[in-house]
Hints:
The complex is a heterodimer. Chain A is an all-alpha fold. Chain A has one domain (6-244). Helices cover 75% and strands 1% of the residues of chain A. In chain A, α12 (263-282) packs antiparallel against α13 (286-300). The longest helix of chain A is centred in the first third of the chain and has 27 residues, at 31-57. The two termini of chain A are 22 Å apart. By secondary structure, chain B is α/β, with parallel strands linked by helices. Chain B has two domains: 25-149 and 286-358, 3-Layer(aba) Sandwich (Rossmann fold), CATH 3.40.50; 154-278 and 363-400, Response regulator (Rossmann fold). Chain B contains twelve helices and 15 strands. In chain B, strands 7, 8, 9, 10, 11, 12, 13, 14 and 15 form a nine-stranded mixed sheet that branches. In chain B, β7, α6 (178-193) and β8 (197-204) form a beta-alpha-beta unit. The longest helix of chain B is centred in the first third of the chain and has 19 residues, at 2-20.
Amino acid sequence: xxxxxxxxxxxxxxxxxxxxxxxxxxxxxxxxxxxxxxxxxxxxxxxxxxxxxxxxxxxxxxxxxxxxxxxxxxxxxxxxxxxxxxxxxxxxxxxxxxxxxxxxxxxxxxxxxxxxxxxxxxxxxxxxxxxxxxxxxxxxxxxxxxxxxxxxxxxxxxxxxxxxxxxxxxxxxxxxxxxxxxxxxxxxxxxxxxxxxxxxxxxxxxxxxxxxxxxxxxxxxxxxxxxxxxxxxxxxxxxxxxxxxxxxxxxxxxxxxxxxxxxxxxxxxxxxxxxxxxxxxxxxxxxxxxxxxxxxxxxxxxxxxxxxxxxxxx
Amino acid sequence: xxxxxxxxxxxxxxxxxxxxxxxxxxxxxxxxxxxxxxxxxxxxxxxxxxxxxxxxxxxxxxxxxxxxxxxxxxxxxxxxxxxxxxxxxxxxxxxxxxxxxxxxxxxxxxxxxxxxxxxxxxxxxxxxxxxxxxxxxxxxxxxxxxxxxxxxxxxxxxxxxxxxxxxxxxxxxxxxxxxxxxxxxxxxxxxxxxxxxxxxxxxxxxxxxxxxxxxxxxxxxxxxxxxxxxxxxxxxxxxxxxxxxxxxxxxxxxxxxxxxxxxxxxxxxxxxxxxxxxxxxxxxxxxxxxxxxxxxxxxxxxxxxxxxxxxxxxxxxxxxxxxxxxxxxxxxxxxxxxxxxxxxxxxxxxxxxxxxxxxxxxxxxxxxxxxxxxxxxxxxxxxxxxxxxxxxxxxxxxxxxxxxxxxxxxxxxxx
Lengths: 314, 415
């Protein structure tokens, strides 16, 4: 395995430090900030999964919530109607999201640029439509309430905020390690090559379509992993989880944090979750502030927060 | 490039700073904190504002205190999004330590909050959220509804239509979601039991931009049309209904939101003559309502709607319960019991008390849009006193039937 560029080592150190700090201060935190940190961990998984597409492969998807939501719905339906346990929910959620991505990928990967954006948007709307209209299965607009958190053979019950936070933190760390390994593998480097120049990679004999397709499917699978965690965290699944706004917000997390860095999108997720929840407490005009931050980042740090922290000469 | 790093660091610090803020600590004789959720951004922001204003108006009227304790309302924006509403509730309960949680507008917010509220055992009230099952097949122990159940006004409306009109065959058109199904379903249940027929059920998506294709489908051999829309869709539907020349041919009945006072001032002659049913009308002629209307117009600069009345009366309900509990809101069981025992003889919408499932028994008004003094209003033309959410059915028999949905009641007379 090859080591990444120095900048990415810095991102790893930063990420590990952030994980450690979060793990240490968590017991001292009141339960509300703790639940927000849990949310950050879950959203970080979602943002990192999209980063594999946007940052590494150069594919901007506007339908990433579809896989996130499919998995969340799988958990919601299985655990409320069939009383399914931890493993069933986890496997079913991730597998269903992966299958959805595998199907959608067949349609979407043929397109590039805005066309890819539009097709993923349309496919995302299909899933939203199903969630909204297939009332007998999804309970429609009302959503599925009362999704229980899984019972694990651990001394702590996950229904308490602190154990669930550690659970989500470990899950996020695992997802980060897996995606990071993938990004530095020859496969990940090929993706970067495709991002830089598709024609050149094709000329070198790489199967560009297959690489993009696999990246798409893997990203969908990890988004599904985040969706499983999300359903457990909120105990509630509704069409809001699969709607366009969720996809766009995920895209913003990646862009804000710094695409192609993994740790960056996780940071972006943290930024957006805390901005939304804290600024809105102090002012009704919180959307204005959120917008100003986005514009500020685009003007002063076009490669995202982490991109700005990393060495600029690239 | 240093500047760039500085900006990035500043942004980072800005996110980290609120984490360090100490949480508020509650004390026994400290103010009574009430957490209030409303959609203050997004498509329902105007309604959210009405909700906040109604709540504030009542608390201002009583000087902001009860039983010797000050009342502190903490308003949070739920964006009309269930996940955000959950987040904000956690903040209100865990960080602000509110004694009572209230507010919320959309059904899915209600369903999302219910398990959380029951798990946290926070005495809560829903002034606006009307989804039937919250007080029926899945009753929440810790939530008292101070507003209404969606189908509650529609059962008497079905009976009224049978007795007071010659309409036997009615075509229904509604918004394609639970609120629409429960409005149309409630009407259909009673109307068909009494010998009427719903001959068509058309469901229009929430993002409909043009009603022409739907209006073209409406059966011209029906005696009347029953419609349910809210907000922008209500405005547009009525306008296009008139433009299509249907207004003179097919009289229009509707769910209360079709002509509620958040949209009525923006309507024109197309709304005149529309008959709807709701548990409130701004034009109700009782002393409490007249006084409320005057005060609301003076403070908010617009006419009251059922949303502002809902939170106004809801605030009074909570205050009465706190009084009954002797100001000891920390005793949650006693507080919940007090909320469930509230019995208001005179409110802006008439007498109010709670049934065993946590929903008010209240008057239902059949209203007709008229122009009075140049302004449109929902003139009350009939009153059904003390209507239960179960209408005249026995609760257990009622709840054996499925929840009103896209498929229930089945459309027996549709072709």
